[in-house]
Amino acid sequence: MIGAIAGDIIGSIYEHRPIKTKSFPLLDASCRFTDDTVLTVAIADAMLSGRSYLDSVRDMGLRYLCAGYGARFIAWLHSPDPRPYNSWGNGSAMRVSPVGFALSSEKEVLRHAKMTAEISHDHPEGIKGAQATALAVFLARTGAGKKQIRTRITDLFQYDLGRTVNDIRPGYSFDVSCQGTVPEAIIAFLDSISYEDAVRNAVSLGGDSDTLGCITGGIAEAFYGTVPEEIRDFVRQRLTPDLWQITEAFCEKYRWR
Question: Across residues 241-251, what is the average pLDDT?
């Protein structure tokens, strides 16, 4: 989960000034957490507290209203009776990594990923993006190799994972859809040799960099087994005390450091 948050923070400064290179300062002083982190922590909080995903996401979202949400999600947050709005946006995928870290079977991971998505993003592509992301985290955490992860995600979700980062980068641009973000984020992980390399791959695509970094970072942490201590410290310094407390409690409960 810290890997997902770190990917969001690292990618935050490139969201509106995209880059097409892996050579960039990793831990820039201007980096900050965005809505990706806030809602990832909200999902973790729901899993810790037993509250519904809707209640936790809404409460945390309202607590951090300036985190960078889209207009439709802001309207959802403020609604007296929030209902799903058929979104296929990548917001369902960027917040789901705690599901892949916490649950113990593929069936439960897919079920809960769907539950986290459909409170707002109930379009089939929104649900698919959340499920693919959570399953990739789960498979990586439970010892699957990259070939197995590529094959399982491709077979189940029909994403084209046969490309490389170098294939994608030249023509890729900002895309807020699940179908235009999740496959690319998974490929950024598949093409990597370390946690840091995975996040650099994601940001270098030149798209929705904080969300790409968040999705890729969660999978990479699960696969490589850790986030470098320097990056972990960077995350702690940039989170508010309440966000860090929930993050640390989640890692402690699910023994994921």
Answer: 97
pLDDT at 168: 98
Query: For domain 2-13+29-253, which architecture applies?
Result: Orthogonal Bundle (1.10)
Residue among 231, 221, 172, 215 at smallest CA distance from 31: 231
Give 167-182 pLDDT, tens digit per residue: 999 999 999 999 999 9
Over residues 71-77, mean pLDDT: 97
Domains of the chain, residue spans: 2-13+29-253
Read off the pLDDT of each residue in 92-108 and give the average, rounded to a whole number. 97
Angle between helices 106-118 and 124-141 (to 10 degrees): 140
CA-CA-CA-CA torsion sign (203, 170, 190, 97): positive
In this prediction the pTM is 0.97
All residues at 6 or more sequence positions from 171 whose CB lies less than 8 Å from its CB, including other chains: none
d(CA 134, CA 130): 6
C-alpha closest to that of 15 among 77, 67, 57, 64: 67
